Amino acid sequence: MVRRKKNYSKQPHLWLRKETKTWYIVFRNGPKKVRICTKTRDKREAEVALDRFLKTEYHIPGFERRQITLHQGIASWLKSCERSRRGLAFSTLRLYRHFDKKLREAFPERLLAVDVTRRDIRKFLDEQEDAGVSLKSIKRLLTGLKMVFNYLIEEEIVIFNPAQRFKIHAPSERHEAMPESLYLGMISAMEKEGERDLVELTEVIWHSGLRFIETTRLTWEDINFPASVWTIRSPKNKGGVKSIPFREEVRTILFRRYQRGEPMGPFHNQYHHYQSLWKAFRNRNPEFLPWKFHCLRHSFISRLRSQGSDAAAMVLARHSSSAMSDLYTHMELENMRKELEFI
Hints:
The protein is mainly alpha-helical. The chain folds into 3 domains: 13-59, Single alpha-helices involved in coiled-coils or other helix-helix interfaces; 70-154, DNA polymerase, domain 1 (Orthogonal Bundle), CATH 1.10.150; 180-340, Intergrase catalytic core (hpI Integrase, Chain A). It has helices spanning 43-56, 70-81, 90-106, 118-130, 135-154, 180-192, 196-208, 212-217, 248-260, 271-284, 293-306, 310-317, 322-327, 333-340, and strands spanning 13-17, 22-29, 32-37, 223-224, 229-233, 241-245. It has a 3-stranded antiparallel β-sheet, with helices on one face. A 3-stranded antiparallel β-sheet has the order 4-5-6. α2 runs antiparallel to α3, α2 (70-81) crosses α5 and α7 runs parallel beside α11 (293-306). The termini are far apart.
């Protein structure tokens, strides 16, 4: 009698990929074979990763509670983004609602979130390209899909992101750094028109490099005047919650607004008010129409890095990588000429 070898493929086990000599956790989820990279070549470290996976993520009993459709997952993600605690700008939420609509149209209504494969993602991207959608729009939709699956992973609904490895190379719009001469001219024009609030907000962004929406999230509890430190609260992909120092010029403006009796914070919950002021000012002064608040952030980072403060620029801008800081770095022709004189 020949004994058949018992098949343990349904249970998670380690598998060594010979090409990269990297260990993977492999198991079957229904008809699908799932592989999760441990990102290590050491078998002992891989065994630790397998134990951690078995204790925290892998639990087939009660797996039925995870069986939600992708449409339900997208709706749950959008609802999470719309919470007031997230503090996302209206323009960002409007873009996320566009993702919600497009992704629901593209995927079947009964498709389970755990059943989405990389083949489904590739088919979705090909269909968008065949329909004549621009590469820039496809890249945005792919970003939205990645955010949805990252949210589902956090909620323990799926265990991996099938959209993670896909990349769309599309030209992205890049803001320019506002020259100091233009900034001074803009401040002068604002002061002539009596736009005191707009002047103070512009100066704070110029001297701190904060995003415009981050200034409107600030409360007095987030600001430590004696230490000249404030706590910036943003989503994880925008730096998260971090405490960083600010300059004396910023401290003077903030303290002035504190003495003036601003109730919640220096610019708290006045996003639309300042957007309206900024739009009306640029319409009255067409020479400033091409410029946005974000250009002031680019200028701040460029000034820091031109002084050789790469590490400080990365921390104060709350960038996750130096490559992101590189995108924010601009050098004027005159500055490059000055640098050549020292060679």
